[in-house]
């Protein structure tokens, strides 16, 4: 190929692969091809069946509409384009770009059209738009040599466009897009005017006569459909029908004077249109023609659909009429000819302007219609039906096979990038000028008000109600200001937080913060009334698979532009309908937070995205209930940084900390925690996320993370590269794919990698070899320190042997979706069995033991979570396995060799165990619950008295006995010798339970008698009022002794937790075993934002009932405040002040008490205890803890009544500054001779 032709070819391919012209050209080609093939198929069918001809044109139109969203979403099949001379033109373009006459905006345009496309596709697992280092350096060189003023000129032209820049914005694509939009608007307006005129004609029309109406009813009855509205008008000359949802038939004004046969034929024809839903297909055809108005094939498809529609309607109408009249074809054809002849003198314009309607006959093609009516084809033959179906299948396959996108081949992209880099460097060396950093501009823009939380709450999108909700909320509450006054006009939204928001296939760090892909987590929105009340009724939460209902979490967020923002947290629950009354949201005044986003060397980063992702109190014990996250949320405020890196976030509640994420294409994410006011304190209760050294004050300076790159090669034992190998690092650093040279490159957050180095087990590089490579997937240890040092990883994959086997039960039935793995380390990754129980593994040429695990009940196999025990040597013989030896079977033809067939792995199947449960009286125990419980597999061989610290797990689903006391239990996983069946029954007056060893049941025991148990009961009250749906945890307390450094400590552990829920009277009831100690703790109270209470131990009595002391929650509005001094009168910072807990006083049962209390004195020795019920209390004051012993030196007790805001407390403590430790310094004698 000559140089000009090669350059033209390269430019064409570059345009089709790196610009939107590629999909446009492909769509135009597909629509034309669909029209051509449809015409050929219709020609082949000929006179056989008019209905199938119409179906072919309908299918062609639907396919032409379907390919458009496919190209916009996934792009279709990837079609690599071989560019034989790709290097030379790109090299030439680089040399042209580095010339002195090239302007900066020309450089940017050339970058976007050529080199950037290569850098995007050269890193398949990284962010689209990221530069490779080599490409970035080359482009930097181009920008440096293109303008004498360097980066300053480029930023200036980007920020303030010149006349030339504005001229460059008016490009050919923009002009063509404007013409296309203008054409769409013209056609849409024309159709809209026609639709309005049709409705006006129908409204002004007259009703038909009684005889005509009777004919219409008889035709509708014959067709088995309801009657439609019929009107006469003097503005039309032919019968027509319009309206997809409410069809209307219009007939000429002299319709009643027509013959009975003509009126019958007209009604039969138009009602056949209604029956076939032709008005809907007409709308779809108009939509297709509007989208493709510029394409002749679009008009051709619309025309052929209209013609075939009339053919199909005539065929069906004649078929219906022939049931009662054998001469129906001749009579129908005669009537059609008479109707058209009568209207032949009508003005043509009066019919054309009513295009949305379906007229009985157009003036063209009448001869073909008459011929098809009088000479119908044989539509009942089997060959004709088969031909029709094959025709539709051909159209669908054609559309699927031609939906492709053009891409340069990967190998040539790498070569082109290398040539681009070397050519640019050579030109830079010759020019002698310093390169500047390449600039990558983003087109997306945020609204100016998006930096405010109130604006996001007021304008966010609300998701539609879920069709099959996981649970339904009914929430009532009120919003109050910081002073307690009701707030009218506050905007309140109901949102969810546990949603799995990461979009499928979205790996871009930068794109996670774009407004266009925000996760729509807002389920409802309302406004408070004059008394500050709000209500959400029947708000359904989305039902997602594999997510437990009791793990759903959400918030109700309230905002007022002048009074502030507040929220209320909702935890999980098993209830399908959740009624939450009495929610109170107190608004917190807001403030703005500002800062700068910079590089590590403090240079400003322009056009970065700053997102507010979290608001919370760092020093609160109940961190979850007092923190709200907005990551990827519809409510997340975002703002772009200015030229100096400055940003500002508004409407941020004071007294909190906010987490801010700053992102940019060229840098890793920078994060920072910023205080919103001076009273946002950090003390001993601060969470691990907040440290005094990492918290900033506004205006804050947040530096981007420079990032770290893990790179290396993946080769086989012969040194050949392994393309398309998937490489991942650790558990949370993402993954990438090796290119055609086996080179991989994974960019990660440097600080996250550094923090992971503190783990006891080093991170691993896991490599999944392509299935067709014949190599064994492997994992190698690669500590974080080696990544931070920039060390490259050289990974060699061994040749493997493909094996295939099957997992079956004793009868030969397959075990599906089970995991099969080898116990040999780094010798192959697990595989799942298919629907036939077949698995395929690629294993190294060494001895193996294949083990099986599954989560399905009824198999004597470990579960997936316990499959790690299978690789332990002592556990291998306990489970079904298959031993194979592949030593010496590796060969050069392993890639093409057929998989080696293995003997099946036979797994014993467990049958359901049927039991009969009876009461002590011998009557059936109806409604008793049965569940199999056990300990972890690591407890095999451990004595029962050593199980106190082991966790109990469920080995079956909970079952309930039927009316005969029968129950069936099917275990899951492998049972240890400690497994037992737990039976419980609760009646109105008594409680029963039983605990039977599973080994006895397996041994043949089928009848179990439950024993009389103790009925535990208690109540939960708030200020004396019962609370419904309060949740409590009840667990068995087991004594435990532990010896440390020769000293023995006695304590207890809590296990076998069970849940109890209060009823309308605030009472909870459940059966417990006699003679054991139980711990009861209040976990959650609806509409109350509270902390988890301490567990209270109770000895189970021999009596039938055990009454637990009532949990009496109290609301307090009083406060106690003061200062703490030492014996010298100096204020003490860091002293702990709290109300003493006694048998009468329980501060942890005071709602919102600890949340709004500062129990640690500040620098002035001040403390403030809020939300205290009215009364006199004893304050416990402890001096600051010693940093070494972690003990308080002195403690004091002072009595005070609520309302006393000037309590003075003196501790027997002296505040002394820590004496600095002196370091020894070696002093050498002065040598005078030197």
TrEMBL record:
The keyword S-adenosyl-L-methionine does not apply. It holds the Pfam family CarboxypepD_reg. The chain crosses the membrane at residues 20-42, 54-79, 174-193. Keywords: Membrane, Transmembrane, Transmembrane helix. The keyword Transmembrane helix applies. It comes from the Bacteria. PANTHER family: POSSIBLE SENSOR-TRANSDUCER PROTEIN BLAR (PTHR34978), SLR0241 PROTEIN (PTHR34978:SF3). This is Regulatory protein BlaR1. It comes from Stieleria marina. The gene is blaR1_2.
């Amino acid at each position: 190929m000559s140089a000009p032709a090669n350059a033209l070819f390269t430019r064409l391919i570059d345009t089709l692969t790196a610009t939107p012209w590629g999909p446009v050209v492909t769509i135009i080609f597909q629509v034309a091809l669909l029209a051509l093939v449809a015409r050929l198929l219709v020609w082949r069918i000929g006179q056989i069946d008019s209905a199938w001809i119409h179906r072919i044109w309908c299918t062609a139109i639907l396919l032409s509409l379907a390919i458009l969203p496919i190209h916009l979403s996934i792009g279709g099949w990837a079609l690599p384009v071989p560019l034989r001379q790709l290097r030379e033109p790109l090299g030439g373009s680089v040399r042209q770009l580095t010339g002195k006459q090239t302007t900066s905006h020309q450089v940017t345009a050339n970058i976007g059209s050529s080199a950037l496309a290569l850098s995007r596709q050269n890193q398949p697992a990284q962010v689209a738009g990221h530069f490779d280092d080599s490409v970035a350096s080359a482009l930097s060189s181009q920008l440096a040599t293109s303008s004498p003023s360097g980066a300053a000129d480029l930023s200036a032209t980007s920020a303030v466009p010149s006349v030339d820049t504005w001229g460059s914005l008016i490009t050919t694509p923009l002009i063509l897009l404007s013409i296309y939009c203008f054409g769409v608007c013209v056609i849409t307006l024309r159709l809209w005017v026609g639709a309005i005129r049709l409705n006006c004609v129908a409204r002004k029309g007259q009703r038909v006569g009684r005889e005509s109406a009777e004919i219409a009813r008889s035709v509708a009855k014959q067709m088995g459909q309801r009657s439609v509205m019929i009107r006469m008008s003097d503005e039309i000359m032919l019968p027509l029908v319009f309206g997809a949802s409410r069809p209307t038939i219009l007939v000429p004004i002299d319709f009643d004077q027509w013959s009975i046969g003509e009126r019958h034929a007209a009604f039969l024809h138009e009602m056949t249109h209604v029956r076939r839903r032709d008005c809907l297909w007409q709308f779809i055809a108009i939509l297709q023609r509007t989208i493709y108005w510029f394409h002749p094939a679009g008009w051709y498809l619309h025309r052929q659909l209209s013609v075939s529609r009339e053919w199909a309607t005539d065929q069906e109408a004649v078929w219906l009429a022939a049931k009662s009249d054998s001469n129906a074809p001749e009579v129908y054809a005669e009537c059609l000819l008479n109707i058209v002849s009568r209207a032949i003198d009508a003005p043509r314009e009066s019919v054309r302007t009513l295009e949305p309607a379906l007229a009985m006959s157009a003036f063209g093609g009448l001869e073909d219609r008459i011929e098809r009516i009088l000479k119908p084809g044989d539509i009942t033959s089997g060959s004709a039906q088969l031909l029709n179906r094959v025709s539709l299948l051909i159209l669908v396959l054609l559309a699927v096979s031609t939906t492709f996108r053009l891409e340069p081949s990967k190998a040539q992209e790498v070569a082109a990038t290398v040539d681009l880099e070397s050519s640019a460097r050579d030109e830079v060396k010759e020019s002698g000028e310093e390169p500047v950093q390449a600039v990558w501009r983003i087109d997306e823009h945020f609204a100016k008000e998006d930096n405010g939380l109130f604006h996001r709450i007021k304008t966010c999108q609300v998701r539609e109600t879920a069709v099959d909700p996981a649970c339904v909320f009914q929430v009532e509450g009120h919003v109050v200001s910081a002073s307690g006054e009701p707030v009218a006009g506050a905007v309140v939204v109901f949102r969810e937080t546990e949603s799995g928001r990461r979009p499928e296939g979205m790996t871009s760090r930068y794109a996670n913060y774009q407004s266009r892909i925000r996760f729509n987590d807002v389920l409802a929105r309302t406004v408070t009334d004059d008394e500050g009340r709000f209500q959400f009724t029947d708000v359904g939460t989305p039902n997602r698979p594999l997510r437990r209902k009791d793990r759903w979490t959400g918030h109700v967020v309230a905002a007022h532009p002048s009074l502030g923002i507040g929220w209320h947290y909702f935890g999980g629950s098993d209830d399908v309908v959740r009624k939450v009354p009495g929610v109170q949201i107190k608004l917190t005044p807001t403030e703005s937070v500002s800062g700068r986003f910079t590089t590590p060397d403090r240079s400003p980063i322009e056009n970065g995205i700053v997102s507010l992702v979290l608001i919370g109190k760092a020093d609160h014990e109940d961190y979850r209930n007092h923190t709200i996250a907005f990551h990827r949320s519809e409510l997340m405020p975002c703002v772009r940084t200015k030229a100096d890196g400055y940003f500002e976030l508004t409407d941020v509640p004071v007294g909190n900390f906010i987490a801010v994420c700053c992102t940019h294409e060229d840098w890793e994410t920078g994060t920072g925690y910023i205080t919103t006011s001076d009273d946002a304190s950090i003390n001993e209760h601060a969470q691990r996320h907040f440290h005094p050294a990492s918290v900033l004050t506004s205006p804050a300076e947040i530096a981007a993370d420079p990032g770290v790159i893990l790179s290396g090669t993946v080769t086989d034992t012969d040194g050949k590269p392994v393309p398309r190998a998937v490489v991942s690092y650790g558990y949370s650093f993402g993954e990438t794919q090796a290119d055609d040279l086996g080179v991989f490159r994974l960019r990660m957050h440097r600080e996250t990698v550094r923090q992971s180095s503190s783990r006891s087990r080093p991170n691993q590089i896991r490599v999944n070899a392509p299935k067709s490579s014949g190599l064994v997937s492997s994992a190698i240890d690669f500590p974080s320190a080696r990544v931070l040092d920039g060390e490259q990883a050289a990974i060699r994959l061994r040749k493997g042997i493909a094996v295939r086997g099957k997992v079956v039960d004793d009868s030969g039935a397959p075990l599906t979706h089970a995991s099969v793995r080898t116990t040999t380390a780094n010798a192959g990754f697990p595989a799942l069995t298919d629907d036939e129980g077949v698995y395929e593994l690629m294993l190294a040429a060494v001895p193996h033991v294949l083990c099986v695990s599954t989560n399905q009940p009824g198999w004597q196999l470990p579960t997936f979570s316990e499959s790690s025990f299978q690789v332990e040597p002592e556990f291998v013989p306990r489970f079904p396995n298959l031993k194979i030896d592949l030593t010496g079977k590796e060969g050069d033809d392993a890639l093409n060799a057929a998989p080696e067939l293995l003997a099946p792995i036979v797994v014993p199947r467990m049958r359901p165990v049927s039991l009969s449960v009876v009461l002590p009286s011998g009557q059936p125990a109806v409604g008793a619950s049965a569940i199999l419980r056990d300990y972890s597999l690591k407890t095999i061989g451990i004595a029962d008295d050593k199980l106190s610290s082991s966790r109990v797990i469920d080995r079956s689903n909970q079952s309930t006995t039927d009316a005969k006391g029968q129950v069936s239990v099917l275990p899951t996983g492998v049972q240890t010798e400690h497994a037992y069946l737990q039976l419980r029954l609760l009646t109105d007056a008594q409680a029963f339970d039983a605990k039977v060893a599973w080994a006895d049941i397996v041994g043949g025991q089928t009848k179990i008698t439950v024993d009389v148990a103790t009925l535990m009961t208690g109540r939960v009250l708030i200020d004396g009022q019962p609370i419904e749906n309060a949740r409590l945890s009840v667990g068995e307390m087991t004594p435990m002794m532990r010896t440390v450094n020769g000293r023995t400590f006695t304590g207890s552990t809590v296990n076998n937790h069970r849940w109890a829920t209060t009823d309308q009277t605030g009472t909870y009831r459940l059966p417990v075993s006699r003679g054991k100690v139980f711990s009861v703790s209040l976990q959650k109270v609806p509409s109350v934002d509270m902390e988890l209470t301490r567990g209270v131990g109770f000895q189970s009595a021999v009596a039938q009932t055990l009454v637990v002391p009532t949990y009496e929650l109290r609301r307090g509005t009083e406060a106690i405040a003061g200062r703490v001094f030492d014996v010298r009168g100096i204020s003490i910072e860091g002293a702990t002040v709290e109300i003493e807990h006694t048998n009468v006083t329980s501060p942890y049962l005071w709602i919102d008490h600890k949340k709004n209390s500062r129990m640690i004195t500040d620098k002035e020795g001040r403390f403030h205890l809020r939300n205290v019920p009215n009364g006199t209390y004893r304050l416990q004051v402890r001096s600051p803890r010693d940093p070494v012993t972690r003990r308080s030196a002195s403690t004091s007790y002072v009595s005070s009544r609520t309302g006393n805001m000037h309590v003075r407390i003196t501790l027997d403590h002296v505040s002394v500054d820590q004496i600095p430790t002196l370091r020894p310094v070696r002093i050498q004698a002065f040598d005078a001779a030197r």
